[in-house]
Q: What sequence folds into this?
């Protein structure tokens, strides 16, 4: 029993920082990050006590973390799109807010802004989880494909493919709203 406890302690010490960073990139609230981290290690202790064989502990920990993150997002409504940030051409951080019509530009701009935000959130929600995670991590969180591959164990090509399909879907899904906006802007 003491030997098992020692092995678990070694795994916790070795994987804690990496696992916390993995969770932190996907979960905004630090309290939720810590809750998920503790839950993952709790599952490890439980699995060990039940003598469940775990061949690849690191992969297993990340899989449990992904499942807990998914559970969290099912319980909570995702953060608003207006909280997302992108990097501009000169390296400055642009919030999505800066890319949308100003709410002060009149009632038409405010209406279009709200419609666009609703459409973007809806379109992202419609993506399969794997595609949404890659798209959000790369486009909104600025994570590289190499980083994602190291975290997930998936190949860069798999991640690229998932993002490609997400972009194709989002383009098609948002095309009508774009054309409506562009058509309305040409008439003014």
A:
């Amino acid at each position: 029993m003491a030997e098992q406890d020692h092995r678990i302690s070694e795994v916790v010490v070795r994987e804690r920082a990496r696992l916390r960073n993995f969770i932190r990139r996907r979960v905004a609230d630090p309290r939720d990050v810590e809750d998920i981290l503790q839950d993952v290690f709790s599952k490890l202790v439980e699995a060990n006590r039940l003598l469940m064989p775990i061949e690849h502990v690191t992969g297993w920990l990340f899989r449990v973390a992904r499942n807990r993150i998914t559970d969290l997002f099912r319980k909570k409504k995702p953060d608003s799109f207006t909280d997302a940030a992108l990097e501009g051409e000169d390296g400055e951080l642009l919030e999505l807010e800066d890319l949308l019509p100003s709410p002060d530009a009149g009632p038409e701009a405010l209406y279009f802004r709200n419609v666009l935000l609703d459409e973007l959130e809806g379109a992202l929600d419609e993506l399969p989880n794997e595609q949404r995670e890659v798209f959000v991590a790369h486009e909104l969180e600025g994570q590289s494909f190499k980083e994602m591959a190291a975290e997930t164990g998936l190949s860069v090509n798999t991640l690229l493919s998932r993002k490609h399909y997400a972009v194709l879907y989002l383009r098609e899904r948002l095309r009508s709203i774009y054309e409506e906006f562009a058509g309305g802007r040409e008439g003014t």
